[in-house]
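2 proteins. here.
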Amino acid sequence: MTPYDINRKTVVITGASGGFGSELCRLLINEHGCRVIGIGRSREKFEELSQSLGDRKNKFRYVLFDVSVRENWQKFAGKLEKNGIIPDLLINNAGIMPPFDKFENEDGETAKNVMDVNFMSVVYGCEAMIPLLLRSAEGGIVNVASSAAFSPVAGTAVYSASKGAVKNFSQALCEEMRGRLYVGCVFPGFSKTGLFRDNGLTEDDQSFISGLGTDKADIASAIVRGIAAGRKLIVCGKDSHMMTALSSVAPSASNSLYTKIMTESDLEMFRRLK
C-alpha cells in the first residue's frame, strides 16, 4: 500500500453539491489546499457551497451536467484539455437510491436510471478522464460504492447491484492501472445525506439512520484518510464495518438477519418490504 499525497491536488468530484461530495470539497480545500471542480446539477447548492468556503472559494469551481450521459463527460474532458487543466484525482461520488421496495414492485426504467447514475456514470467518467489523469504526476481515481456492494439487503436489489458493479469495476481497473494510476473504492454505510431524499423519511426513520449511521463529515474524513494511505478498499462507518465483516463470514445468515430487522420494525421506510 503506497501512500497518496492528497495535498494541493486538482480534484474532480461528482455529486459535489451535497452529502459526501460537498463535505469532501470543503475538507480537500480547507485542510489540504486542493483545487476542486465539482460536478452536479444544482446551481443553487453549488453557490451556497462556494460562499461557505469564504476566502478559499477561489479554489472551487463547478460545472453543471448529468453524469449519466456519456457525451457530457467527453465535452467536459475536452474543455479541461483545451484550458490546460490536468486533473490529478477523480472522485466518482454521484449516486441515487430508490425507496426501499421489493423488486417486483419496481419497473425497468427505475432500474435503468439507477444503473446509469450509479454505475455507468463511473464508466463514462473513467473513460473520459483517464487520458488526462495519466498526464498527472500522481493521478488517481476513487469510486464511491456502498456497504451494499458487500452485503446486499432486501428492498435494494437494483441499488445493491449497481454498487456491486462499481466495486468489481474498481477492483479490476485497479489491477489494470497498477503502477500508472492509484485506484480506490469506498464503501460507506448509512449516513444522513440526500441519497434518501426520495424515501419520504419520517422523524423515526431519520432517527434510525442517525443512530445507526455515521455523520457525513466523518465519512468524508475517513475517505480522505483512506486515499492518503493509498488504500484500495476504504470502508467507512461503524455499520459498514459490521456489515462487511459479517458478510465475509456468514453472508446468507447476515442477509436474513437484516431482512428480519427491517420487516419487523415499525419504520415507514421499510413498510413496502412487509
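next one coming up
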Amino acid sequence: MFGAADSVAAAGIASKLSRPGIASAFAAGAAVGILGGLIGLGGAEFRLPLLIGFFGFAALQAVILNKAMSLIVVVTALPARLISIPYDTLAPYWYVALNLLAGSLIGAWLGATWATRMRSSTLYRVLAALLVLIAAALAWSHYAQIEPLALDPVVRVIAGVGAGVGIGIVAALMGVAGGELLIPTIVLLFAVDIKIAGSLSLVVSLPTMLVAFARYSRDNSFTVLAANKTFVLAMAAGSITGTVLGGLLLGVVPTGVLIPLLVVLLLASAVKVWRHT
C-alpha cells in the first residue's frame, strides 16, 4: 500500500502543473474524450495509460484519478443520455440493472481492495493485462455478431450476477466505468437493444463506481486527489468536451479503420504499462 512518500510525490506533481500543464491536462482529456465519443464510450481506458506514461503518476494514483474523472464524466453523461432515451423507455428493463448491480457492487469493492493491497509492480502488470482484455472486448463487440443467449431465467440471473462481479472488479482496478464490458454483456445475456444497453450501462456504472470510490477513499493514496484538484478538473473538463465532439463526429471515421487503430493503441499502451517501473 502506498504511504506518505507517494503523497509527497503526488503533491510534487501538482506543484509542477503550471498553466501549460493544466492546458496539457485539458488537451489530453479532450483527446481521450474524442476517442471514446467516436465509439460511444467515455474513453477512460485510454486515459489511464496517459496518467501513467505521460503525466507520471504511480499505478494506484493513476487508477484513483481515473476513477474520479470517470465519475464526473458519467454523472454529466447520464442526464444527456436520458434525454435521447427517456426514462419511460428504460423503466421496463429495471431488472437488468438490478441483476448486474447485485454482482458489480461486490466486484467493485473487491477490485478496489485488491488494488490498494497489490505491490506497485504487480498492479502495473495487472493493468497491462486488463488493457489487452479491453482491446479484445472492443474488437469483439464491434466485429462479432452478438446473438443473445437462450438461457433459463434462473441461469440468466446467476450469469448476470457473475458477470457483474467480474465487470465490477475490472472497472475498479482500472478506474473506468466499464461500458465496454457492460454493453455487450447486457445484449448477450438479456437480449436488449444496443442503444438501450448503452443507457443501462451508465445506470449500472454510477453506483458501481461510487462503491469503488468509497473503498479507495480509505487508502492513503487517495490524497492524490486533494493534491491534484485543478489537474483533475481540467482533464475531466477536457474529457467531457472531447466526448461531445467525438459524439458529433460519430460515423465520420469508418469503423473499419477506427476500431483497428484503437485496438492497436490499447495494445501499445498495455506494453508500455507492463514495462513501466
